[in-house]
Amino acid sequence: LSYLKKIDNMGGALCAIDGSSGNVFVGEVPTIKPKIPMEWPILLSWAQKTKRLGVRANADTPDDAKRARKYGAEGIGLCRTERMFNAADRQGIFVDMIMARDVNQRKEVLKKLLPLLKDDFVQILKAMEGYKVTIRLFDPPLHEFLPSSKNKKVLARAKELEEVNPMMGHRGVRLGITYPEIYEMQIRAVFEATAKLVKKKIDAKPQIMIPQVGSIEELNHIKSIYDNVKSDIEKKYRTKFKINFGTMLEVVRACLTSDELAKTAEFFSFGTNDLTQAVFSFSREDAESKFLEEYKKKEILEISPFQSIDENGVGNLMDIAVSRGRKIKSDLEIGICGEHGGDPDSIRFCHSADISYVSASPFRIPVAIVAAAQAAINKK
């Protein structure tokens, strides 16, 4: 802790992070640019022809989307819309929305955000033309977006929004139900962006995904908002738009009742990070900082379940969800979008579990493609 405090007090100091090990080095260290072997493009093309699993990217910005496509991604499996509110030109607007005391005030503030999000979606969808882009609606608790402040009004609002266990609290679909104007604005921005691209004859393929769903009643509640917006936009442009509506499977109850959810959802995507937390009943942050290393030393766990999918627990639950969901819709598209999407062992499991695609960070796309091909070869 004293070392972390020392680093914290070195504001502005240069540091380097090893992306493989996670080690942090304070000060300047020697670096080299990675060299891509001449044979790599050929190997990658073989892997793309051999694999069964689709490989998509987790991408939240137009630059991420372009980078992912360059590395071979076949679409975006997770676009986290809350990241869009962190930009300098909109962070203050979103804070104003949180501070608003009634729904009408919130709607007025959200009107300012709609065109900004629309522009983001236009650029991301354009970068991934011809491929599906799965857009997850707002997920984290609102209090995370309030700035550190001594302002009495901000402090009072932060106190109102404070939660004992935010990971399992007022977030995701629960937020969308209690603050429907947020989801309504985001859905409208997706439709408006799609309309703009369709007019330019650009093949945009957005999908809207709802986080933290635990029941069909929750999903249907948001679907009614989606249907109303869809109707408005189609009347406005006198055009029909095909934007799939689906859900994440990251709540245990959702996995066990996937047959019910499949009646409304047009696709599923496992949020394996949160699902792992739910199955093990510990948070990733606490586990990694407090006891996971000790568990590995004492051979209680061979590897972190946040690194590779725990096949006996989380994997078993995924198998149940896939089986029950596809009994309702045999061609149901089911992906994963946690960090496991770039892990070779997890990719092997996903291949055997008949998952449709994995989604990984842009820089892990080539690794995921090769791992998917290896999984296909080993299964033969």
TrEMBL record:
Keywords: Kinase, Pyruvate, Transferase. Gene3D superfamilies: Phosphoenolpyruvate-binding domains. Its EC number is 2.7.9.1. It comes from the Archaea. InterPro entries: PEP_util_C, Pyruvate_phosphate_dikinase, Pyrv/PenolPyrv_kinase-like_dom, Pyrv_kinase-like_dom_sf. One of its GO terms (molecular function) is kinase activity. It is an enzyme of class 2 (transferase). It holds the Pfam family PEP-utilizers_C. Residues 43-375 form the PEP-utilising enzyme C-terminal domain. This is Pyruvate, phosphate dikinase.
